[in-house]
Structure formats: structure tokens, C-alpha cells
# Entry
Amino acid sequence: MKKTLVFVIVTFLILPFSLLRAQDDIWYTTVLKEKFLDKNGNPLTGKGVVVGDIDSGVDIFSPFFFFADGGEYDWIDVDKDGEFTPGVDAVDFNKNGKADAGEILNFIGMKNNTYGILKFKSKEYKADMDFLYMDKNKNGKRDFGEKDGFTESDATYGEQLFICIDKNKDNKLSHGEKLIALKTSKVRAVREKDGTIRRRGIDLIKLEPDTVKHGTSVCGLMIGGQYGIQKMCGIAPDAELVMANINYDYTPRFVRNFPDLIKFVRDEKVNVLLFEDGEWMWEFMDGSTDEEELTNQIARDGITVIGGGGNLASGNMHMKDNLKAGQLMSYAFKGPKEAEGKKNDGAFTSFLWTDKDAKIAFTVESPDGKKSPEVSDGSGFITIGDYHMFYSRDVSSKGTVMFRFGFSAKDSGTVDGEWKFSVKSPKDVAIDGFLVDVTQSWSGSTHWTNKNLITDEGTVTFPSTADSLIAVGAYTVNFAFGPNDKLGSLCYYSGIGYNIDGKMGIDICAPGHSTFTVSTENSYTLFSGTSSAAPHVTGAVILLLQYDPTLTHAQIRNILKATAISDEFTGKLPNTNWGFGKLNTEAAIKYLMK
# Structure
């Protein structure tokens, strides 16, 4: 899952070169500009809807992921100074009108991991950013989890959490203002990487940590926080979550148990499913795999399915060429000895074309100048000088041909240097070449060198290549991050173009760079990529389903398309960059209400 970590680092590196806008001008992209009610007169917050996310995991101890269902309490100004004094004042938890032992009130100062873009201090309590807790042992920090002696039956899995109802809007805890206790986890169930299932009310407290932090940020955008309380909260903060944690393999296919993950989420009776992964190596990219067919069936059964279109554009890992019959062509890629702190001991390529009768022949030259025999069919392992080569020709059920290669070095060495392909086709045929190394990085540490053939067209990634899936692209908000970038423009890395089977790759675009959300260890963070854009669409879908639970995948897709925005950046719609345009959540809700 290096794909995500590298992207955050890149964001950090480029921000100092951007013109940062005033904080008052920041767009909290998950907070709707209007308030809506469902058919029963309740706020439209996602209540009653269950979202499934296939992702890296979720931090179940984050205050953002508990419902405010623990009751209302008064606080006691112990030192009688007229203001909240952390570690001194108390919460009247037993409602006896006095401050008893174990009722000391403190707060979690959420960490500011936005590189200073958001201007707040973690050491000062802010009602719209921070959380209060009952510091029973007076140690000045919130204790939680089994390590601190808490169990599944304990509210918030630790020392009791609260939010402040800031009635006078001074962003402080003032005299007479009420506290609401958080209690129940928003997470219903999680399938861990090894297949263990953790459930709320049974053993969710034992859940493995989200070490990658990706899923936690995604969930923050969808369901985090409390409606009308936090400055940053999810689009649908009263929805519930089912998560399936992805385990990445070292070599492709990098995610080999997608069917198991999809079936788990489906069987948990979710209403909407989000894929938070993008793969391109050793994938047919034509919607033909078991995972994509299963996705189509889920959509036919009424579950809305959404996915990020991927950040592959601009990574120099995709090329396209039109081969002429009998003409010898040469392609090459280069890789480093080390990338992103990892030894580069593996590189992989896929060549795709749609004429299964075309037996294209390949010869490979390794960095030490040795050449392989010509291969055009079958599969096998070949030694080329100091290197090993795996190859295989496969054909999908849709007739897409994939010729895949895997390269490694003898004695666990590295595959750095230049690799060359000599390619000849017996027929005129269009060919796509995809590339990656063991970093699995979007950044293209290993990349094609045929600059005239490198293209961003056709870079929407699997599983968003499924026929029925709503594929989401990303556009820039809050901060322009490159010399040619503008607020409102399509992110340079967002996948575009037609898929190899001719389907328009992107359906709709949403805010992707830079958005703000929650991360692990009680922090706010920047979050970017189509991984940020897709949960915006998912959150909108959750609200639509609260209003009308009978909506089908097809109906929701049509509503999103019909209400999408066009502007000077999108141009005439639909097109292969923007799909049907920019997400307009408010317009989609109004469309449904009519």
C-alpha cells in the first residue's frame, strides 16, 4: 500500500511552492452548504444506511467513529473561575450535582497534521475540533483499549468521550453548556487481513490497527464526526460501516483475495460498496475478472458500487502504440536500485491488445545486455544473463490478450537499469503497455522511456474497470499544487480515457486534492487522490439512500449524472476526462426530493 504513503509525501513537498489561501477561504468539502430532512423530518445524515469499504482498515478508537448516543451531562466548574480548566473541572457523570472522584474532565487536543495549513493549536480546547474525556485516573491522557484494561462492553472502548454543545458559538466550553457522551461504535464489522472477523458487541476492540492510515481517512470523509458539531465531519456521519481490510502481496496480482473481500461485505447486507484500491499490473482492465463480474452482480442486486479511478495518469507507467504488421518496434523502461526506501528487486509489465488471433512476439534484453529467446505464446521461466524472467500469454473472457512479464535478479539482487523489448506483430494491432515495480507506487519510480508513446489515456485502474461500477475522478480544491494547476481543474494524476474494452473510464469527478479529514492517533490530515474523491460520491449516495432506501444502483447512477456540474474546466460533457462532470451533492438530493 505504498501507493498512498508516497502520495501524501508528494503533497507535503509541493505545498511550500503553492500560494496558500487564507484559512477562512478553506472549503471543508464534506460539509453541505444546505441542511436537508428525510421523509420523516429527520436530518439527512446517513442514519439507517450501511456502507462497505474495501480498504486498509480503520482506527476504531478514534473519537470520530462513535455515535453521540450516550446521554446528556452537565459539567462542573470546580475551580469556579467561569471557564473550562482541563484536568481540574469535572463532568457530573453520576448526576449527583457534585464533582466526584473519577469525574475529572480533560480534552484530546487533535493533532494538526495539515502542515500548518489549518491554523489551530492542539494545546487549546476548541469545541468544533476537539473531544472531551473523563480522566478517571488523572494521568492527563486518554486511556483506551485492552492494553489499558477496557473491554468490548465499555462505551467508546476507553475513558468516556464527550462532545460539547457550543450553544453560544464561542468555540469554548462555557457555563451552562451541555456535554453529550459518545458511546456506540459506528463500525459494525471488519474482516481482518488474515480473514478473522471482528464484530461490534463481541470483539471489535481487538481489531488490528490501520497501520497505513488510508482507510481511517476515507471513513472520516464518509462517516466521521458529529452532524453540526465538528468543523470537519463526514458527509453522512450517522451511517454505519463494514470494512474489509486489504492484504497486499509482494508481487502481482497484488490483491489476490478480492472475491473473498467482496463477498464478506455483501453478506453483511451493506447498502453501498466502496472500493479503495487501484491495480493495473497483470490485470486485463476490461471488466472480465471474477471480481468485476461479482461487482456487476452486486449492482444488479441493488447495492450501489463506487470506486476511485486511480492515480496512474502522469506516472509514466502506461504507454500505447499502433503496431504495423511485420514491423519491429522497440520499447524500454528504466528502474532504480532503490525506491521509497525499498530494495527494487522486482519489475513487472503487462502488454494488452484486443485481437486474440494476433500472436505478437517479444524478445527481452536485460540491463547486462543479454537477450531472451523470442516468446509469443504459453508461459514459462527463462534466465537472461544475471536475471530471471517469467512470461505468460493469457486471454480474458472478453477476448483481451495479456502478455505479462516478471523480472528479478539472481542472488536476490536488484533489477535497476534499462530493460528493452523488441516487439513484432503479424497483424496491425493497438497495444497498451503497463509497468510497475515492487514499490507498487503511483509515482513511477520504474517507468517507460519511450516518451512519444507514454500517455495518460486509458489509465483508469482495476477494479474501477468493472462495467457497472461508478468510477470517480479527482479535481483540485483548496490548494493548487503545480505550475499548471488551478483550483477546480482535474488533478494531473487522475485516471482518464476509455478502458481497453471501449467503456468510458470515469463517470463523475469529486474533490480530491487537497481535502481535509481525520487520521489515526487523534489527528487531522490532508488527504488527496481519487481515494479522496470516491468517498465524497459514496457519502452523497448514502444520503440519497437515507431519503429513499428503495433506490437501485442504476437509479442512483442516473441521478448523479443528471445533476453533475459543468464549468470552464470540464468543457462539454460527457467526456473521457470528467465523465458527466463534477459531483453536486445538494443538487442530487433536491433532484430526488422532487
